[in-house]
């Protein structure tokens, strides 16, 4: 991570990452995900924070986040961002 971005990033436990106003709640095992979501939502509620549910997706195996694809395989380039290079 670039040093200038460290102050904009919050790691809340090992399963939640927040960058400015983007939040990622992650877990490798599906069975563990629901308790993590509940805990995260309780923490947000305790701090009087609200979510715009139109901007959230739940239960996906991969998703675009901060310009990258995040999945169980790890962090990969966003295919939309590298399409021009691949077409060369």
TrEMBL record:
Species this chain originates from: Lithospermum erythrorhizon
SUPFAM superfamilies associated with the record: DNA/RNA polymerases
UniProt-listed PROSITE patterns: RT_POL
Reverse transcriptase domain residues: 1-70
InterPro entries: DNA/RNA_pol_sf, Retrovirus_Pol_polyprotein, Rev_trsase/Diguanyl_cyclase, RT_dom
Any single Pfam family the record assigns to this protein: RVT_1
Name of the protein this chain belongs to: Reverse transcriptase domain-containing protein
